Each structure stands twice: as structure tokens, then as C-alpha cells.
Amino acid sequence: MTHIDELAALGTSTWLDDLSRDRITSGNLAEVIEAKSVVGVTTNPAIFAAAMSKGTAYDAQIAELKAAGAAVDEAVYAMSIDDVRDACDVFLPIYERTGGVDGRVSIEVDPRISEDRDATIAQARELWNKVDRPNVMIKIPATPGSLPAITDALAEGISVNVTLIFSVARYREVIAAHREGIRRAAEKGLDVSQIHSVASFFVSRLDVEVDRRLEEIGTPEALALRGKAGVANAQRAYAVFQEIGAKDLPAGAHPQRPLWASTGVKNPDYSPTLYVTELAGPDTVNTMPEPTIDAVLEHGGLHGDTLTGAEPAAHEIFEQLVAVGIDMEDVFAVLEREGVEKFVSAWNDLLDSMESQLR
Predict the structure, then answer these.
(1) Against a cut of 0.85, is the pTM above it?
(2) Which family does the similarity line name (predicted)?
(3) How many helices (H) and strands (E) does the chain have?
(4) Domain CATH for 347
(5) What's the CA gap between 5 and 65, in Å, rounded?
(6) 164-178, pLDDT tens digit by residue?
(7) Residue 170 and residue 165: Cα distance in Å, rounded?
(8) 139 annotated active-site
């Protein structure tokens, strides 16, 4: 039994935060599933930008798309959809074995339309239909403009990975959007047991921003709080999930599991497994870059369920952060804005790279 298996026994599913055509065609993805107990995959514009800008795995398809006169956006999504579809096929046995809970592969809507409800739901619908696999999840950001699109997608029976969540206040809005979407799906007569969703909380990015501000303050009290905000914030979110995550859902519906994202440690002074060992518990997902998975396999460090009952101590940490001068509302606003901007930047880089290849 590996440490990833131990994590699964605590209730946390391990998903890989990476995908490329090389991983699929070389058999590496299947090997990672077998050897490292990975049960799902998440992608984002930055991941596809890295995959498509190096190597030769996409050359043949790029040549076909060039000959067909494909627009750059069309080409990028054609290749992304093919990769996600093929990855879904690799994960299908896990999807079937877990009743749809795991075996999931996520693909994200264009981050440039994150404030446009109509455009977001239209693209979510298009991606869902084009991938055409029961275990795909469509990633939609938890921005104010996209929250209604999350409800719309779920109401149509589309499984959704809600991404870019930073604050507990926004998370409550995500839970409400999920509940309303599932309610509407049930009213339409859809089988709500087939609709799954996760709510992706970004962890390490919070520590990066808060630590920077703590170091600017520079007092001993402030410096002692470095590396604590990300875990505490996720633990507070988990308490909300336990309180209302399954509340008022139609019969047969699944609660929207919290997913811990951005779990690769950015500060080398922190344990490489910090955002895994301190965020282990029932009904959760942790999507990790492969180096973090390897660190867990090597070092372990798990010490039971670190989510259930953790809210009082997490709340105290937030009170201390405020007491030393951290404006958490401003932190969350900055991170949400920068989160979208970073994905837009990665997307634009990918489009620029693809345009030059199509030329």
C-alpha cells in the first residue's frame, strides 16, 4: 500500500494536474495510473501551452489543420479535445469502478470569456458534446460572470469542475450555484446521479500572496504566520462543505466535492507535501503536479484526517492574520483577478505559438 493509497483511504482522491499527448501515446499516463494510484486528470491553458509548444507529438495534426485552413483557436481546441477524449478512454475503467466519482478528465473553457455567461455556457456545451465521453468535466471559473453559467451547465446534465476559487465567501456562492443547477436538472427529469461536480480551491497561491505581505510587515508576529494561510483557508472551506455541501440536494444527487488545486509548494522552505498531508479527509480531491505526487509517495507524512474538526484552529489563524494587518478581502480580490489574467496570458501564448506553427 503506497502513501497515495493511504491518502485514498482517508477519503482524498489523487488526480494528476498535467496532460500531454506524449503522456497518452507513450503509455506514461497508464503507467502513472497503475504505479502511482492516480484516479483523474485536470488541465488548464498553461498545461496545454506547455504540452503543445515542445516536441513533435502534435506535428501531424498541426499539418492536417494547416491544410484544412483551420483558425488558430479552432486548431488549439481540436488538439486539446482529442487529448482529453483519449485520456477519458484511459480513465474509463476507474470511472466505471467508482460509479463516476473518479476517472475524471477536466478541460477548461476559454478564460477570456470568464465574465460572459452566454459565451461560457455555449462553449461548455460545445466541449461537452465534442469530447463526448461520460467522464469529462468542463472547467468553468468561479468569477461573478461565470457563476450563472455553472448553474446552466449543471442544469443541462454537464459535469462541472468549478475552478479559481480563493475565498470561502465565493465558495458559498459556488455551492448555491451547484444546488440550483442540480435542482433544475431534477425538475427537467434528468438523472442527477449522473451529474458530478468538484469545487477547486487554489491553495499555494494564497500563501505566496499572504507571505509576501507578511514579509513586508516584518514583525515577529507576522513572520510567524507564513505558510499558514493556504491550509487554514482550505480547512475553513471544508467546514462549510460539511455544513451545507449536501444540504437540500434532490434525491440521488452527489455533493460537490472540494478539490485542492495549486498544491505544488512554491516555497522550498516548506515541506513538499504540505498541501497534501494537511488537507487529507473524506470526500475530497487533491490534484497535484507529478513532483508533488512523487514527494508524497516518497515521504508520506500523512497523519490522519486533517480536515474534520480543523475549522476552529483555522479561524484563529485568520484572526491573527487580520490582527497583524493583512486585508484578506483584498488578497482574495487580487488572487481572483490574477488567476484569470494568468490563464488568459497562458492561452494567448499558446495561440501565438500555434499561429506561428500554422503559418
Answers:
(1) yes
(2) Belongs to the transaldolase family. Type 2 subfamily.
(3) 16, 8
(4) 3.20.20.70
(5) 42
(6) 999 999 999 999 999
(7) 7
(8) yes
